[in-house]
Design brief:
With 315 residues, this protein is an alpha+beta fold. The protein has six helices and 14 strands. It has three domains: 60 residues, RNA-binding S4 domain (Structural Genomics Hypothetical 15.5 Kd Protein In mrcA-pckA Intergenic Region, Chain A, Roll); 81 residues, Pseudouridine synthase; 132 residues, 2-Layer Sandwich (Pseudouridine synthase), CATH 3.30.2350.10. Helix 1 crosses helix 2. The mean pLDDT is 91.
């Protein structure tokens, strides 16, 4: 059951479409689903029905009564997967940028879960019918190492390591600007942005605790290449933390990066890659590190950037 949402439109909502205003407050639901709710008279503005295109005015009371989504089950799809490590309990895959981990928000096919179900006979059921095997996630346009559990016992053991902060996760990120310190730690809680609901923020001083550590690997004119270690796994954590320093991840327009870099081709994604994960095998407790090299699209972009000037240091 999805709880009703009641709110009063603010100044920031004035002039926007009704479906857009609702989507900003309920970003986990697609615009098309919200439009369907409006057509089904599940949305009231000033106590009356309205169209999705209704222009919202500040002060208008809006009530949303979401419809429960129909039950969904992930289905196998023949999608290529690059396996980095596999045993009887788990698989580590190299997720490409652009692939959603599991269905949701209007995406029901082409996901990593669909690919996993086709490739492997059994996955853990702890995550439910839509997220079989999924122990942790990566943003859609983040590439790199991701673990999936094949059975429930392995899933619980891996999940305990993640929640106990026993898993070391290393990312590679290219950010705009010259990061001042060679190393640093960002210890700022992360919360949903109260104005832009599709974003997270670390500027409120409240939210879920989160910390990220970084080390400069190379410097380029206008950019810094970082190795980032995170101790928590909050939504958009690295992107939010680095942006809070004034150094958004290259290509990440949601958090302040420019859409175009003069003299460089479009990235088509943001420059963030899950480089390695160190954890203990569920079967025997042996420590293992799974590594994913920088993918060709990011490596080529970095090489082109490097050809414009000699960096101070290389990875």
């Amino acid at each position: 059951m999805i709880d009703p949402l009641r709110f009063q439109a603010g100044p920031q909502d004035s002039g926007k479409r009704l479906d857009q205003v609702i989507h900003e407050r309920l970003p986990d639901f697609s615009r098309s689903r919200i439009q369907q709710w409006i057509r089904e008279d599940r949305v009231k503005v000033n106590g009356s029905g309205a169209r999705p295109s209704h222009t919202v005015h500040a002060g208008e009371p809006i009530e949303v009564n979401p419809a429960d989504p129909p039950p969904l089950h992930a289905t196998p799809e023949a999608i290529p997967l690059q396996v980095l490590y596999e045993d009887a309990d788990l698989v580590a895959v190299d997720k490409p940028a652009g692939m959603v981990v599991h269905a949701g928000a209007g995406v029901h096919s082409g996901t990593l879960v669909n690919a996993l179900l086709h490739r492997f006979e059994q996955l853990s059921e702890v995550g439910g019918a839509l997220r079989p095997g999924i122990v942790h996630r990566l943003d859609r346009f983040t590439s790199g190492v991701l673990l999936a559990a094949k059975n429930d016992t392995a899933h619980h053991k891996l999940a305990a390591q993640f929640s106990g902060r026993e898993v070391e996760k290393i990312y590679l990120a290219l950010v705009h600007g010259a990061v001042k310190s060679e190393t640093g730690r960002i210890d700022r809680p992360i919360a949903r942005d109260p104005v832009h609901r599709t974003r997270m923020t670390a500027r409120l001083g409240e939210g879920r605790a989160a910390w990220s550590e970084y080390r400069v690997e190379a410097r380029y004119p206008g950019f810094t290449f970082l190795r980032v270690r995170i101790g928590t796994g909050r939504t958009h954590q690295i992107r939010v933390h680095l942006s809070s320093l004034g150094h958004p991840v290259a290509g990440d327009t949601l958090y302040g990066a420019p859409a175009h870099v003069e003299g460089m081709p479009p990235l088509g994604r943001y420059f963030l890659h899950s480089h390695s994960i160190r954890f203990h095998l569920p079967s025997n407790g042996e420590e293992i590190t799974v590594v994913s090299p920088l993918p060709p699209d990011l490596a080529d972009w970095l090489a082109l950037l490097s050809s414009r000037a000699v960096p101070d240091r290389t990875l």
